[in-house]
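Progress report, Aim 2. The chain analyzed during this reporting quarter is listed below.
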Amino acid sequence: MALPAWSATLIGSLAAVCTTAAFVPQVVRVWRLRAADEISLATFLVFGVGTFVWLLYGIVIGSWPVILANGVTFVLSLSIVFLKLNFDRKTRRAAP
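Predicted structure tokens for the chain:
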């Protein structure tokens, strides 16, 4: 039994929503705690580059689910990197 053509887009869109939404709690947690000690800067930098490349790929192939999911995920990963750098700088400055 073959699936309709739209089902692949639906499945991909659902996967994109889930994987993108997974980063929202991390951003909220870092923001609320005003600390990112447990966050790996290297991981989020590499992840950010990866999502940017996926975003470019989505643009090249013209896939809106890939473009939207990776555009939002890229912004969320950059937010975590920015918060990490900002809070780490403040922590280092406040240390005796």
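The radius of gyration is 17 Å. The chain has four helices and no strands. These observations will guide the mutagenesis work planned for the next reporting period.
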